[in-house]
Write a structure and sequence with these properties.
Oligomer: single chain
Structural class: mainly alpha
Number of strands: 0
Largest sheet: none
């Protein structure tokens, strides 16, 4: 499966995918179609959950250790909007710098 592929490739590949998906969320948010934003957020949140698993972080631990509300955890699970400051806070928890996980990839149709 794709998830196993990411785990097999390791942390660097997972971080790269989290960064790519985060950039795609930003690009989609600049476009008028909210469905595109939902789709890209779903991809981002999936890869963030893979990163959590790779780092051995459980959702319960986020709630208890880092005082993240169940509402935020539910938003992550349900692919709903999460504030940028929440994403940055998660990067802090996962010991990542934004530059470690973000890469700008221009959209193909914007040339």
């Amino acid at each position: 499966s794709y998830t196993n592929y990411l785990f097999d490739k390791g942390l660097d590949k997972i971080l790269k995918k989290v960064g790519e998906e985060a950039t795609e969320v930003v690009i989609a948010a600049k476009n008028p179609n909210p469905e595109e934003v939902k789709y890209e957020l779903s991809d981002f949140l999936y890869h963030a959950m893979v990163l959590m698993a790779e780092k051995g972080i459980k959702k319960r631990e986020l709630r208890e250790t880092y005082n993240i509300s169940p509402t935020i955890i539910n938003r992550l699970n349900n692919n709903t909007n999460v504030a940028v400051d929440t994403i940055m806070y998660l990067c802090e928890i996962l010991d990542c710098q934004p530059s470690d996980i973000m890469e700008y990839i221009p959209p193909e149709n914007n040339i």
